[in-house]
Design goal:
Organism: candidate division WOR-3 bacterium
Pfam family, one: PEMT
Number of domains: 1
Strand order of the largest sheet: 1-3
Shape: globular
Strand content: 5-15%
Structural class: mainly alpha
Order of helices and strands: HHEHEHEHEH
Radius of gyration: 17 Å
Main location: membrane
Helix content: 55-70%
Subcellular location: Endomembrane system
Keywords: Membrane, Transmembrane, Transmembrane helix
Oligomer: single chain
Largest sheet: 2 strands, antiparallel
Length: 173
């Protein structure tokens, strides 16, 4: 597939979003944190939804491994086993549940909920689109069928980050 000037700009924009996705998430969290109060009544529901998101991420990384932590799109790998049989992007789905869980725990204006979820859906839809384009262009795709608990080791930082976020939320009470 040949790229026109506009397509190259869109591709570059999506790659930049992907590269800085962690920083974008932190900035989004800080904005929500500053403008929110805590909805303590929803703590347990929030915790369950965040935990569900973490499970999706763990199941995704169980097969994907360190490839998922890359700052660039990976075009030579595709996972077809485990949770990937049912969900093409379980890590993205996990991120969505984690976001929903945190939003449930916050009292922010309804517009903030809408904007946050809309931005997330648009951002991750662009990631999915770019991955599909890359897979269609690449003729040599390696299928990953192996799995390992070692692949989940990187998720320790996600767990620590989630605990830190809940700790920061409780400081606001």
């Amino acid at each position: 597939m040949k790229y026109g000037k506009r397509s190259k700009k869109i591709k570059k924009f999506i790659e930049t979003l992907y590269y800085y996705r962690d920083i974008i998430g932190v900035i989004g969290f800080l904005i929500l944190y500053i403008f929110s109060e805590i909805n303590i009544k929803n703590f347990y529901r929030s915790l369950v939804i965040v935990f569900l998101g973490l499970i999706f991420r763990l199941l995704g990384y169980f097969y994907l491994g360190n490839i998922g932590y890359s700052l660039k799109f990976q075009s030579e790998f595709i996972v077809v086993n485990g949770i990937y049989r049912y969900f093409r992007h379980p890590i993205y789905l996990g991120n969505f549940f984690i976001l929903l869980g945190f939003l449930l725990f916050l009292k922010v204006p309804v517009l903030f909920y809408f904007i946050t979820i809309l931005f997330f859906v648009i951002e991750y839809s662009l990631f999915v689109y770019q991955e599909e384009v890359i897979f269609k262009e690449n003729k040599k795709i390696k299928i990953i069928k192996s799995s390992s608990l070692k692949n989940c080791a990187g998720e320790l930082k996600t767990l620590i980050l989630i605990l830190l976020v809940f700790f920061l939320f409780f400081l606001k009470i």
